[in-house]
Amino acid sequence: MKLTKNDKKLIKKARSMVNKKKIYCGELKAVGCALISKKGKLFTGANWDLWCGVGFCAESSAISNMVAHSNETEIKTIVACSRHHLLTPCGRCREVMALIDKNNLDNTEVIVSDKEKVKLRELLPYYWK
Question: Which of 23, 37, 54, 93 could form a cystine bridge with 46, CB 3.0-4.6 A?
Fold first, then answer.
């Protein structure tokens, strides 16, 4: 699927997260995430990529913000990026999206490049549940 103007705004919001000094520590990888819920609310998150191996992804952070600050579990659109690249969600984040709401498999649009988005099911085709 091609990106809309709103998708491009969402990418800018995710990129703005990695430009915040508070989430960039030395040489660690900074990743920001922005998502739009089914009801149209914006939620953001940042990763923790710590030297000791403890941490979590920006997507999980944004999803956690959505769950903590609303009664929603359905994601309309989600994007994550580093300073220079858009990133597809890792397997764990794909599972989280599918597990918090089964409707996300067929309804969530994941922005995978500056020109394209796909449904979550395309990134998780053989979902185990």
Answer: 23
